[in-house]
């Protein structure tokens, strides 16, 4: 199997983000040039701006570091786009996983917390994601192998 080296995703204004508690927000810039995660769900109350925002930072880098429990989704339905090399986190027990492509060009998920390789191989990442997205989500992370 090969591991693809990836860099962290960078958020931008307009990105939709969500966390494990299903707090969902959109990245916005305030009139004072601060960056905030503005609440777009009705289930939770934010900590900033009278409950309207989950987190705030003086720049995008600061916001992303302060709100590390949030992860980017690619559309308004909360769907992530997974790809080879992505680091995933299990929603139930916080195990860490990695999407890899085998030498026979099948995609699979490795739980690197428990060293468990899932036996299901998939012809494409969309099928892998379909079967696993209920339990796993993509996180901004860099895997360091020593």
Mean pLDDT: 81
User: Which spans have pLDDT < 50 for at least 5 consecutive residues?
Assistant: 1-7
- Adjacency order of strands in the biggest sheet: 4-3-2-1-5
Whole-Å distance between the termini?
Answer: 17 Å
Please state the oligomeric state of the protein chains shown: single chain
Strand content: 25-35%
Quick overview:
This protein has 146 residues and is mostly beta strands. The protein is built from two helices and ten strands; from the N terminus they run ββββαβββββαβ. Helices cover 10% and strands 29% of the residues.
What does it look like?
This protein has 146 residues and is mostly beta strands. The chain is 10% helix and 29% strand. The protein is built from two helices and ten strands. The chain has helices spanning 60-66, 125-132; strands spanning 16-18, 24-29, 35-39, 53-57, 71-73, 87-90, 96-101, 107-111, 116-117, 136-138. It has a five-stranded antiparallel sheet with strand order 4-3-2-1-5, with helices on one face. A hairpin with a 5-residue loop joins strand 7 (96-101) and strand 8. It is elongated. It starts with 15 loop residues before the first strand and ends in an 8-residue tail after the last strand.
Annotation keywords:
disordered N terminus, elongated, 146 residues, mainly beta, five-stranded antiparallel β-sheet, 2 helices, 29% strand, 10 strands
């Amino acid at each position: 199997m090969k591991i693809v080296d990836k860099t962290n995703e960078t958020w931008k204004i307009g990105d939709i983000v969500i966390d494990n508690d299903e707090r969902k927000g959109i990245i916005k810039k305030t009139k004072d040039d601060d960056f905030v995660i503005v609440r777009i769900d009705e289930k939770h109350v934010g900590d900033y701006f009278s409950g309207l925002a989950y987190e705030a930072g003086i720049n995008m880098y600061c916001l992303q570091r302060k709100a590390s429990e949030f992860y980017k989704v690619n559309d308004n339905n909360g769907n992530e786009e997974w790809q080879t090399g992505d680091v995933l986190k299990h929603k139930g027990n916080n195990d860490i996983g990695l999407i890899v492509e085998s030498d026979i060009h099948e995609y699979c998920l490795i739980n690197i917390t428990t060293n468990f390789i899932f036996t299901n191989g998939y012809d494409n990442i969309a099928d892998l994601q379909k079967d696993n997205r209920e339990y796993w989500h993509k996180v901004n992370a860099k895997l360091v192998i020593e």
